[in-house]
Amino acid sequence: MFNDFINADTSWLVFWLFVGVAIIIQGISKSGFAGGAGILSLPLMMLVMPVPKVTAALLPLLILCDFNAVYHHWHNKKWRHVLEIFIPSVVGIVAGAAVWWWIGRHGMDQYSGHIKKFVGVLAVLFAFYIAARDFTLAWAERWKPGTRAAWPLGIAAGFCSTIAHAAGPIVGFYLFAQGMGKTLFVGTVAWTFTLINLTKLPFYAYVGLIQPDVLLFDLVLVWLIPIGSYLGKWMHYRVPERPFNYVIMVLTLLSGIQLIFNLSFTPHFLRDLF
Pick from 82, 188, 215, 248: CA 20 to 30 A from residue 197's CA? Predict the structure, then answer.
C-alpha cells in the first residue's frame, strides 16, 4: 500500500521501526523536553523514506503532537515570549515555502540529495549543540536576548522548520534565555510550535506536499502520538534531561553523518540483523 514511502533498499521491518521510533521521539520531546530532541525524527525517517514524503508526512503528525503537548501544558505558557518568536517566524515560513515551491517546479527528485545534506548538516550541528549545551545555555542566560534578537532567530526558526522541521534548537535557545523555569519553558515552546506548524500547513498544501496518500499514511501512525506524549510527560518529572539529551546526541550525529555522505549503514545493518 505504501510502496512510494519506502526506499528501494529498505526492508519493511526496518522501515516501520525507524518511522515508529521517530514519531514516538517527537511525542516524548514535545511533551517532556521542549521539542528540541525532535530534530532526530527527520534524519531517522530520511534514512528509509524519500525526502518529500518525510517532510510532508511529518507535519500533520507534528501538529497532533503539538496539540498533545499543549493539552498537558495548557496553563504553562508566557504569551509574550510565544509571540516574540512566532511573529518573525512567519517571514521564515514564507521563505521556506517559496523554496519548496521552486523545488517542486524543477523536480523534487533532483534536489532530494541536497535536502538530505542540508538536514544532515543541521543534525550534526544540533549534536554539537547538545554537547556544548550547558555552556551555550549559560551564555544565553547571561545574554538575555530581547525582541531585537527574536527577529533574526524567529526568521531562521521559521525557515528551518518549513524546510526540515528543525527549529527546535533555535526556539529552545531563545526561550530558555528568558528564565522561565523548566515546566513553563516546555509549555511555552509547545504553544510556539503549535502556532508555527499550523501556519506551515496551508503553505505545504499549496506547494503540493500534502497529498491524500500522505494523510492516509499518517492515519496509520497516529496511534503512536499519545504513546510518545504520555512517555514524554512521565519522563519530564522522572528522567534527567542530560542523559536523555546525550542519547539523542549520539543518534542524531550518526543519522546526520549518514545523510551528508549518502550512506545507509544503520538500516542495512538492521536489515541484515533481522
Answer: 248
- Give the start-to-end residue ranges of the domains of the chain: 3-273
For residue 2, report the phi and psi dihedrals to the nearest 5 degrees.
-115, 40
Rounded CA-CA distance 103/178 in Å is 37
C-alpha of 242 from chain center:
19
Mind listing the pLDDT tens digit for each residue in 9-61? 788 888 999 999 999 988 787 766 655 566 788 888 988 998 888 989 999 99
Residues written for the chain: 274
Distance, in Å, from the CA atom of 261 to the CA atom of 172, rounded to the nearest integer, reads: 28
Tell me the angle at which helices 182-206 and 147-164 cross, rounded to the nearest 10 degrees. Answer: 50
Whether residue 268 has pLDDT greater than 60: no
44, 89 Cβ separation under 8 angstroms = no
Could you please report the per-residue DSSP string of 25-93? HHHHHHHHSTTGGGGGHHHHHHTTS-HHHHHHHHHHHHHHHHHHHHHHTTT---HHHHHHHHHHHHHHH
